[in-house]
Amino acid sequence: xxxxxxxxxxxxxxxxxxxxxxxxxxxxxxxxxxxxxxxxxxxxxxxxxxxxxxxxxxxxxxxxxxxxxxxxxxxxxxxxxxxxxxxxxxxxxxxxxxxxxxxxxxxxxxxxxxxxx
Length: 117
Hints:
By secondary structure, the protein is mainly alpha-helical.
């Protein structure tokens, strides 16, 4: 046993058995494993439909949308303007070219260093 203890002491004092280098290597390996786990998590994400969505509700909503679309086709309103765009309070569209006063009033003046020369 004395010789085994002597041999172990001799091996632990060897320059290639540097405890600081082993700790540093162990820390680097832990960091690399963490990065690897993050990459695996990112690649393993599931982009399918979540579990909390009821398929029956989705099919019901799809059926109602199809019914609404077919009713619009039957009424001839497919190419018509949608109701949310039919606002009577909208101002009339401008006619003709804007006057010089309207052009300068609508745009802010450029800073002197950016003004065209």
